[in-house]
Amino acid sequence: MDAVIIGPLALPAGTFVVLIGFLAATLTSLWWQRRGQYIEATLWRIAITAVLGARLAFLLRYHSQYESWLAMLDIRDGGWWWPGALLALPVLAVSLYRQPRVRAALVSASAAALLSMTLTFAALEALSPTPSTLPEVTLYNLQGEATTLDAASSGVTLVNLWATWCPPCRREMPVLEAGQQRYPGVRFILANQGENPNQVRQYLTEGQLHFEHLLLDPHADLGRYSGNRGLPLTLLFDQQGQEVGRHFGPLSDASLHHFLSQHLPGGTP
After folding, report:
1. What is the C-alpha to C-alpha distance for residues 162 and 257, in angstroms, rounded to an integer?
2. Which of 69 and 214 is assigned the larger pLDDT?
3. The pTM is what?
4. 251 close to 172: Cβ distance less than 8 angstroms
5. Average pLDDT, stretch 138-147?
6. CB environment 184-209: b (16+ within 10 A), e (fewer)
7. Could you give the CA distance from residue 151 to residue 140 in angstroms, rounded to a whole number?
8. pLDDT for 173-185, tens place per residue?
């Protein structure tokens, strides 16, 4: 499952799993706090180190994809490489060594976080729809001509679900526009969700954006296919039309490169 929808809030699945783990650790620390063992500050230190480690690992891996240091500070692109979170292990080890009185509390809180994250991840995986081929939906170009996703696709295909009212969608539009030239082996299809041609045409004109394959999905059929009402959502299909990857949330140059290289044979597209 690519995202968890809670009322009007849509969270990337990975973020949701981490929040559940931190909540479990916090609740465990409150139980120990009633017994005179205080580990809240240590838990925050471990959690912050894990998050910073995951971000730094991503930046080191894809530093060439960023235009400036300022762009690297924008965590809205979802750029995390989770092996970097292992940087928190030395912090945990040092804390266990220096604070023998609260070792049981730290170990139990860490175990609670790990167990809850594992169970949450397993539950989300079980609830995830089985990857399928290109859905049979009718889409339209800006001239009102009908087509199908299968007819519009060619080889490896990236399908982005977006809307003009969605700020994260608007933020990633220049990235997707540039991606058309950066990754010629991938066909980019922009599928607008539920808006009329005039709205879309006006937005493209004002933003001076050009997409080779921009289609309208007036009934949000692709949203129903994906089982995700949140935007933006990016789907990736291989040359056989089989879905091989999903990304929920806005893409930066770096996270788009990571997404494509992660799911395409041979690594770099």
Report:
1. 19
2. 214
3. 0.79
4. yes
5. 91
6. eebbbbbbbbebeeeebeebbeeeee
7. 12
8. 999 999 999 998 8
Interhelix angle 40-61/13-33, rounded to 10 degrees, is: 160
pLDDT at 266 over 70: no
Residue 130: φ, ψ to 5°: -65, 125
Mean pLDDT of 184-200: 93
What is the DSSP code string of 116-138? HHHHHHHHHHHHSPPP-B----E
Between 264 and 51, residue with greater pLDDT: 51
Report the alpha-carbon distance of residue 249 to residue 4 in Å, rounded: 12
Q: And the tokens for 100? A: 């023998």
Tokens for 145?
């001509």
